[in-house]
Amino acid sequence: MKIIFDAMGGDNGPDANIKAAVNVINKIKSEIILVGKEEIIRSKVKEFYGKDLEQISVRLKIKNATETIEMEDQPTVAIKHKKDSSMVVGFNMLKQDEGDVFISAGNSGALLAGATLLVGRIKGIDRPALAGILPSYKSKFLLMDCGANTNCKPINLLQFAQMSTIYLKNTFGIEKPKVGLLNIGTEETKGNELVKESYQLLKDKGEELGINFVGNVEGRDAFSGEIDAIVTDGFTGNVFLKTTEGVGKFVKRTLKESLLKNIISKLAAVPSLPAINNFSKKMDYKVYGGGLFLGVKKPVVKAHGSSDAKLFEYTIIQAEKFVENKAVDKMIEAFDK
Amino acid sequence: MKIIFDAMGGDNGPDANIKAAVNVINKIKSEIILVGKEEIIRSKVKEFYGKDLEQISVRLKIKNATETIEMEDQPTVAIKHKKDSSMVVGFNMLKQDEGDVFISAGNSGALLAGATLLVGRIKGIDRPALAGILPSYKSKFLLMDCGANTNCKPINLLQFAQMSTIYLKNTFGIEKPKVGLLNIGTEETKGNELVKESYQLLKDKGEELGINFVGNVEGRDAFSGEIDAIVTDGFTGNVFLKTTEGVGKFVKRTLKESLLKNIISKLAAVPSLPAINNFSKKMDYKVYGGGLFLGVKKPVVKAHGSSDAKLFEYTIIQAEKFVENKAVDKMIEAFDK
C-alpha cells in the first residue's frame, strides 16, 4: 500500500510532516510518498537526521512539487491554477493509482475542490463532506460535515446522513447507527430554515434510505454516547469542532492551575497530572485523527491544520486502516444499489 | 427594587424556582414577585417549608397567572394568545413599572417575542439578542447572540457588535472592547454568506460606530482571554453555547473516571475531587448566570432552561446587579446619540 502525503500542508509543515513520516514508517506497512519541494524536504531531512531519506527507510519516497496552496487561496482557483502544488500533484497521483490514499493538512476548501474536481464524486452524491470521529462517553460519534461545505441545502444533509450510516455500518459494524441532526432544541419546530427543512426531509425520506433518524441533538447531549452520527452543515460543524477544541484546551489549562493552587490539591496534583495529560492527549488524538472526505471516489484524509509530528503520525496510522477497511469501495457499492 | 420572577418556567419549575426565591431572599435587597399559578406555589411552599410565603419573608410576593407557555409553543402565537401565562403577565408587570427586571427560564423564542412585542425595542435596534457572559482564561467574554434570533442578517450582527461594545464599556469599564466575529477560519474569505457579508460590514462601518473589530475568531481561540465579545447569529451562538456545556460535562465525567482508574491516581484523586468539583461549578455558574436581552427597553434576563435552585439563585443575584448598573438606560442613551 502507498500513502501519498502532502509534505507542505499545515501550520507546522514541512517540519512536522517530515518528522511524522520518519517516526511512523516502522509502525506501518505502507510506503509513504512525501509530496512537496524536493530540495527543501531533502535539506530538512539532512538537518534533522544527518542522512538522506532513502537511508532512513526504503519505504520513504519523495515526489517533487514546486508550488504550495496557501490558506488565503481561493479553493477552486488554486486547484485550477497551481498545477504543480503539493496538493494538486498529490490528487493527480491518487487519481492515476500511484497511491492508495492522499493525506493533507492544507486548506480544507481546496481539498474539497481537489477531491471533487480531480478525483471525482461517487455517483449519487451531490456534495462530498468531511467526516470526523469524536469521543463520547464510553464510545465515539461521527460528525459530518466537519467543515467542507459552508453553505448547504437540506438534500446535502440527507446525503450526509446516508453516508454516515453506510460508513459506520461497514467500518465499525454498527447495525443501525443512530443519526441525529445538530440543532438548538429537541423540538421539531426549533432551528434555522436549513435545519427545519432538513428535519422534515430526514423524517420523510430517512427510513426508505436506511437511515435511523432519531431527531434533533443539542451540543450538550452530543457527547453522551447515545448518538452514533450527528449531521450538520459544514459551517456549524466546524464551529462545533473548534469549540470542542477550545473548551478542551481551556479546561485543561484552568484545571491544572486550580489543582496547583493550594497545598493539599498541589500534593494531590503531582500524581494526578499524568492522568490529566493522558486524558487530554487521548481526546486530542481521537478528535483529530484526521477527517475523511466521504463521497469521493478514492480515499482522501484531511489532517488537522495545526497537527504536530505526533498527531500526523496518528493520522497516517488511521489513514492506513481506512484504506484496509475498503471504506470507499463499500460506499460506492452502497450507492450503486 | 422589585424582581419579577417567572415561577413556572424551566425544566425544574416551579420547585427549583420557589426554592431559589426562598434561599436567595436574604442575600439580596430586592423584593421577589413569583409569577405563576398561585395555588400551586402556595401549596409547594407549605410542603417545602411548613409555612406561608409571607411568613418566610415580607419581600416574597406572588402574582397569580393561570397559564404556562410550553417549550413546544410557537413563540409569537403563545405571547399573543396565552394572555394569562406567567410569561405574559410578567412582561406586562415590567412594562407597567410593577417591577424592575423580569427573569424567566422559559421558551427562549417566546421570551424574545414577549420582550419585543410587550416591552419594546430600543430605538435604532432591529433585533434584540441574548448576551451571555462566558469564562475565558483569566478573564471572561460576552457571546451575542446566544440563541434568540435563529435567522440573522449582517445588519443584525453589526448591531450585536455595537450593543456588546456599549454594554462591556458601561458595565465592566472596558474602554475599547475587542469584538470578534465567530467564524471557521481567521481569513477574510472564510465562512458562510452571512459571515462573509457581516465581516465586510463590520470592517466598513465598525470604526464610525465605535466598534473595535478585531476580525474573525475561531471557537478554539474563543477562550484564550484575548477577545472581549464574540458576535454571531443566534443559531450558531446557541450551538457554541451548548457544545461548551456538552464538552464541560463530558470532560468532568471522563476525567473523574480516569483519575479513579488506578491506585496511584485514585489516592491522588480523593483530595483532587473537590478542586475539580469547585472548578466545574464555577464554570457552570459563570456561563449560565443568565443571559441578558440586550436591545430591549427594560431589563429582561433569560435563566438557563435546566437551572436548578442554586443556579436560579445565582441568576437572581446577577439580575439585581444588572439593574443596579443601569445597563439598559445606558444602552438607550448611547443609541439616542
What does this structure look like?
Two copies of one chain form a homodimer. By secondary structure, chain A is α/β, with parallel strands linked by helices. Chain A is 49% helix and 16% strand. Chain A is built from twelve helices and eleven strands. An eleven-stranded mixed sheet of chain A has the order 3-2-1-4-11-10-5-6-9-7-8, sandwiched between helices. In chain A, helix 1 (15-24) links the parallel strand 1 (2-6) and strand 2 (31-36). In chain A, helix 9 (234-260) runs antiparallel to helix 10 (263-288). Chain A is globular. The first copy, chain A, starts with a strand and ends with a helix. The relative contact order of chain A is 0.16. Chains A and B meet through helix 9 and helix 10 of A and helix 9 and helix 10 of B.
Note the main attributes of this structure.
homodimer; 337 residues; alpha/beta; 16% strand; globular
